[in-house]
Specification:
It is a single chain. The longest helix has 16 residues. This protein has 2 domains: about 170 residues, P-loop containing nucleotide triphosphate hydrolases (Rossmann fold), CATH 3.40.50.300; about 110 residues, no CATH class. By secondary structure, the protein is an alpha/beta fold. The strands form 3 sheets. It has a 5-stranded parallel sheet, sandwiched between helices. Strands 3-4 form a two-stranded antiparallel ribbon. A hairpin with a 3-residue loop joins strand 6 and strand 7.
Length: about 325
């Protein structure tokens, strides 16, 4: 778990939504550099009002994890993070017992005069219970006034067995632990904000899991949306560089020979690198020197090198619509 910053104000996004509106949430997110799509903002509002887990699917590099992290940062909330991967166990997500500690307890209790049965009964206590990341988020929510966020990243990589482990928790807000009892929080409005992120590539999530969630598809941003996102991430960017970046990314994604198209993650990384290095323009030479930000395969790298002249031409062409978006954000400055 990553704790919130104790010196900063904590905002309950559910309270903010109830007292103000969804646009206030969007403004908070934008302060962190995240520009949320209107449809996604609408769905986020439903998630906060309902208390239900939120399943977000979409292509890699589109901003799914960034959204969850931006919400946590904007509201200064504690984050419980579960990385989806093969081999996750009950101990990783829900609970396990400290077997060594229990054994020592029984030995010491018997040595001090307790019967073996009494000693055995005393080992099933919270002291020896080790919570996994998911159940720990619900216990935190039950014990604190600050709502936490549980991020389950790349959830399409987990096994069906692990999905089954989480069904009760996501549906009821608590898990039953044999010999101990229930852990969690029954009041739905106090549940953690649970965000499941999936690239929808490894395996299809089960119908029971999907039925417990509100669902969103995070589509790649339109060129206009991408202008706003890049400007929010790099507000000091030169208008010329920003305009050429948008044309470049639009051009690369239209090339038929690129198997792994660069997404929003790549465009943000490249623009940040160029701005940090002091670039105010993007030329064919500069592009050639930064292809490592855009190509993820050998063949894609070769095809981008061959297409450099074509991409340079695309960046130089006037586009009244794209140029207008940049001018509106940057105040028309050159």
């Amino acid at each position: 778990m990553q704790l919130h910053c104790p010196t900063q104000t904590t905002i309950n996004p559910r309270t903010l939504l109830a007292e103000q509106d969804a646009h206030s949430l969007a403004e908070l997110l934008q302060e962190t550099g995240y520009v949320i799509q209107p449809a996604l903002l609408r769905d986020l509002a439903h998630v906060l009002r309902s208390g239900l887990p939120w399943l977000i699917e979409g292509p890699r590099g589109g901003g799914k994890t960034a959204l969850a992290e931006a919400l946590a940062a904007a509201c200064n909330l504690p984050v419980f993070y579960l990385q989806g991967m093969e081999g996750l166990t009950l101990a990783d997500v829900l609970y396990d017992w400290d077997r060594e500690g229990q054994t020592q307890w029984v030995r010491q209790a018997v040595a001090h005069g307790s019967s073996f049965q009494e000693a055995r009964a005393g080992q099933w206590t919270r002291e020896f219970l080790k919570l996994g990341e998911a159940l720990a988020a619900y216990e935190w929510a039950a014990q604190h006034d600050i709502v936490p966020i549980l991020i389950c990243d790349e959830f399409d990589k987990v096994s069906e067995k692990l999905e089954d482990m989480l069904l009760q928790l996501f549906a009821r807000g608590f898990a039953h632990i044999p010999r101990y009892g229930e852990i969690g929080v029954r009041e739905q409005q106090r549940w953690p904000i649970v965000i499941l992120l999936s690239n929808d590539q490894r395996h299809d999530l089960s119908a029971p899991m999907r039925s417990r969630c509100l669902y969103s598809w995070l589509a790649p941003p339109t060129p206009r949306e991408e202008v706003g996102i890049l400007y929010a991430r790099c507000p000091a960017v030169h208008p010329l560089l920003l305009g050429k970046m948008i044309k470049l990314m639009h051009g690369i994604r239209s090339l038929p020979g690129i198997l792994d198209k660069p997404g929003l993650r790549e465009s943000i990384a490249l623009l940040h690198a160029l701005q940090t290095a002091g670039y105010t323009d993007l030329t064919a030479t500069t592009l050639t020197q930064h292809l490592c930000f855009l190509a993820k395969r050998r063949l894609d790298l070769e095809n981008l090198r061959k297409a450099t002249a074509r991409l340079d031409l695309m960046m130089e062409l006037l586009d009244a619509e794209m140029d207008g978006w940049v001018a509106a954000l940057c105040g028309g400055a050159e």
